[in-house]
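Translate structure to sequence.
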């Protein structure tokens, strides 16, 4: 279904209105109400910077908070007709400044789109507004013995619209896949205010192009996700896991292969932490599952749905005893929680090492050791004192690389980025595994995407947003000449 709402009367907007983004505030108030248009120099920081911080700090002159899909559509149609750029914001938990506003942009916050539909236990689906937090939807599903297969560290703040727009990953991708896999249908508002209901809740629906997938991972550049229907899974009856030390990546991959083979479909997480990254936990008070000093640490978790799953997990570890330098098996839910507390504490401790350059990349697992060696060699040639801290989700080829050059300035950030991304590209990897492109990685997109792919992206952007209203300059550069 496609709808395009009538344009709201412009009311007080006139030729004599003040210039700039603030000139639109009065009309936007007519659409969403006075309380839901925020202006002024003292707006909360959550509208101007990523939750985790970044190099880019924006300016939020006008924040509009629509409460319905129809209000979103009216806001977009007005901005489209007036060539007014809009930046879309969810929970602001990104790392690539995709939601950070420029001074000439209206901020469209989805925070009031919080409607949650009933859980359909027969089809295993639930619908939620773009502003619903992932944690809230997880809790809603859990009451019915079901689970949202997406899980990320920022779930208390991250929103469903943001998860869809960025194709969120997280720690359970090895078991459940990315957000894209779980989207049954979407409601999307295009740049000109057209509302589209994309696809249906059917498991099988091959009627033409699957248009909803065009918007998954598009980072708000093609349309605004207003609501989504997600597929749910039965909640596991139990979980088991182990924290192991191994000699190298090859040993970790042998463990990964064995667990997948012996417990088909049960492995939900396979995290790997290199020694230098694990060492940041020293002195933090966090319970260390294993002593410091081992080359590589693995946190593996499996869901247990059959009586013999836990026994099969332990038997697999016993059979691989020669591969494991050390290991700790969770004997209780408290043990497994402690393992995850150690793993999840690492990013916040790494971030204390400022200035720091962080990378979220994918590299084919078999190429990972060579890639990291190349990165280390090239960085040390420029910064002999450099520290390289690596951790991530080896089961899905995703690693996080933190680089501390030892300098007190960020002026050479482009040099660090080129070294890392060039090595990743040479190994057949991707410059972005799960955090998108935004502003931060835009200039490096060609390291991962071919010229033909980039041209097709530009064609799609021009077709769906010809005036460049939506998230201008994110993912792709804004081409003034191409706008019409």
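Result:
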């Amino acid at each position: 279904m496609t709808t395009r709402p009538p344009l709201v009367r412009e009311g007080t907007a006139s030729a004599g209105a003040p210039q700039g983004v603030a000139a639109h505030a009065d009309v936007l108030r007519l659409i969403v109400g006075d309380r839901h248009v925020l202006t002024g120099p003292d707006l909360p920081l959550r509208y101007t910077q990523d939750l985790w911080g970044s190099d880019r700090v924006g300016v939020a002159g006008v924040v509009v908070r629509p409460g319905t899909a129809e209000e979103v559509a009216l806001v977009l149609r007005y901005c489209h007709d007036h060539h007014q750029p809009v930046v879309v914001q969810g929970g602001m938990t990104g790392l690539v400044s995709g939601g950070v506003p420029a001074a000439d942009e209206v901020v469209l916050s989805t925070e009031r789109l919080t409607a949650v539909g009933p859980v359909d236990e027969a089809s295993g689906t639930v619908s939620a507004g773009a502003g619903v937090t992932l944690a809230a939807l997880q809790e809603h599903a859990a009451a019915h013995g079901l689970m949202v297969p997406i899980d990320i560290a920022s779930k208390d703040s991250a929103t469903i619209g943001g998860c869809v727009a960025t194709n969120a990953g997280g720690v359970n991708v090895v078991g459940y896949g990315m957000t894209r896999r779980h989207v049954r249908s979407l409601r999307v508002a295009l740049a000109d205010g057209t509302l589209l209901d994309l696809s249906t809740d059917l498991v099988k629906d091959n009627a033409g192009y699957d248009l909803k997938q065009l918007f998954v991972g598009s980072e708000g550049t093609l349309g605004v996700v207003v609501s989504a229907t997600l597929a749910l899974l039965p909640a596991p009856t139990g979980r088991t896991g182990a924290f192991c030390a191994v000699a190298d990546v090859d040993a970790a991959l042998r463990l990964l292969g064995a667990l997948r083979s012996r417990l088909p479909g049960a492995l939900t997480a396979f995290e790997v932490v290199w020694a230098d990254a694990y060492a940041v936990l020293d002195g933090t008070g966090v319970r260390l599952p294993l002593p410091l000093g081992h080359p590589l640490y693995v946190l593996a978790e499996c869901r247990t749905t059959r009586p013999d799953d836990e026994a099969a997990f332990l038997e697999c570890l016993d059979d691989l005893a020669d591969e494991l330098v050390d290991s700790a098996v969770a004997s209780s839910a408290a043990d497994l929680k402690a393992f995850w507390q150690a793993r999840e504490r690492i990013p916040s401790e790494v971030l204390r090492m400022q200035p720091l350059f962080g990378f979220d990349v994918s590299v084919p697992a078999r190429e990972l050791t060579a890639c990291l060696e190349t990165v280390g060699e090239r960085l040390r040639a420029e910064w002999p004192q450099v520290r390289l801290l690596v951790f991530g989700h080896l089961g899905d080829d995703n690693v996080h690389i933190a680089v501390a050059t030892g300098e007190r300035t960020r002026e050479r950030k482009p040099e660090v980025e080129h070294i890392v991304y060039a090595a990743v590209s040479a190994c057949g990897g991707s410059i972005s595994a799960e955090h998108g492109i935004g502003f931060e990685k835009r200039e490096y997109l060609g390291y991962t995407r071919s010229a033909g792919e980039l041209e097709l992206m530009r064609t799609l952007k021009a077709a769906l947003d010809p005036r460049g209203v939506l998230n201008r300059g994110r993912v792709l550069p804004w081409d003034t000449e191409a706008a019409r």
